[in-house]
Amino acid sequence: MTAGFATEVDRALAVASAMPEGGLFHEKSWRVSPRAFPVSPRLADELDKLGYRIQLFVRACNLLYRLSVDGKQPSWIARLLDAGKPPELVALSREKRFRDHMPEVLRPDLILTADGFAIAELDNVPGGIGLTAWLSRTYSAMGEDIVGGPDGMLEGFASILPGGDIVVSDEAATYRPEMEWLAAELNLRHPESRWCVLNDQAQDWQPRVYRFFELFDLPNVRAARVLQERSLSGEIRVTPPWKPALEEKLWFALFWLKPLREFWRRELSERQFFALRKVIPYSWIVDPAPLPPHAVLPRLDLHSWDELAKASQKERELVLKVSGFSDRAWGSRGVTVGSDVSQAQWREELRVAVEEFGKHPRLLQEFRHSAVFEHPVLSRDSDAIETMRARIRLCPYYFVEEGKARLRGALATLVPPDKKLIHGMSESVLIPAAYAPG
Question: Domain for residue 192, yes or no?
């Protein structure tokens, strides 16, 4: 017997009935579970440590880019990270005023494996903040010991935006309902401040603005120029900062480059450097520059990308991704799992990657196999609980509060085991993470 509920079905129905009117994602739905995802003590400890490591990593990325611009590190690094971006945005990102501005919400996407997790990527403009806040409160009310507590996500967001405007573009309209719920809850909790969700054509801004739109979408953001001018003048502070280089996935490949090894070890510390090497998959930059006759691509032992295009399915346990500054660089768009496609499609994806290097660089990563878990879920006819076998993506949310990354909540996405790309879909389950008993 579940305390306060006669059955597990009752728990699941209570979650479904608590959903705010209009939902939290525009025209999106997911399956409901009566239980949060249990996090073991070992995983919980790793999640606590990961925030500090990710914060160090992002700081080091910011420094490496700046040093490359200043000629104190190889200049090709900045050229690579600036590829395909408008010169005026690059110039803005390099402004002295923004020199030390960093993302204040850090969300790594973790794929849970048999022996821990792998970081698929980092998201500096993450969705799911309002959703995870609602889930955390809802499941806490049913007695779950939620990671971050019932209101951790709300207080975390309030710490980085203590009143202000949340600007949601048309491109990100799917997430507008969760941001509206978040703002409404914060206004109830902190009536001395004011949070507003605005569209991208507003003109009057509070001193603090949360940018909930991708920088590649700037041409479609009607208020972009005004926001940029006012943040440059110091009238307002915009977070995340105007730094497209920090939103590239290519950083994982730069992290593994041997010529940069000493930089990373120095900036991260020996201990954190090796801790991150365990969870960041080995990655390559798909650079078409020809190699010397005697050279090979590290770990692949191939001389060119053309040779990789001919690899067998077993040899294609690799993931190819658009790095950033593209409408294909978020969600599961622009991602190809080599072993999941035909050789003809793999060859074509690599051909396009090489062809578009100067505008949309690609990242190639080792594919880390996710473990399969079992979790209760409400059946589709809503009168029974069934056991779902699922692969899991865990997204912890760290808010940089008083200079330190603090874990305030975590969202688990469960998808059927035949789905190799773990992302939101109608057959997925979205639940908060909770500390496992004992």
Answer: no
Is residue 379 one of the residues assigned to a domain?
A: no
Count of domains observed in the chain? 1
Residue 131 near residue 173 (C-beta atoms within 8 A)? no
Q: How far apart are CA 247 and CA 253, in angstroms?
A: 14
Work out whether the CA dihedral 233, 238, 243, 244 comes out positive or negative.
Answer: negative
Question: Can you give the CATH number for the domain in which 316 is found?
Answer: 3.30.1490
pTM, 2 dp: 0.95
- For 267-304, the three-class secondary structure string (H helix, E strand, C coil) is HHCHHHHHHHHHHCCCEEECCCCCCCCCCCECCCCECC
3-state SS assignment for residue 22: coil
pLDDT in tens, the chain (438 residues): 345 787 999 999 999 999 998 889 876 789 999 999 999 999 999 999 999 999 999 999 999 999 999 999 999 999 999 999 999 999 999 999 999 999 999 999 999 999 999 999 999 899 999 999 999 999 999 999 999 999 999 999 999 999 999 999 988 888 999 999 999 999 999 999 999 999 877 778 899 999 999 999 999 898 999 999 999 999 999 999 999 999 999 999 999 999 999 999 999 999 999 999 999 999 999 999 999 999 999 999 999 999 999 999 999 999 999 998 888 766 667 899 999 999 999 999 999 999 999 999 999 999 999 999 999 999 987 789 999 999 999 999 999 999 999 999 999 999 998 876 656 567 899 999 999 986
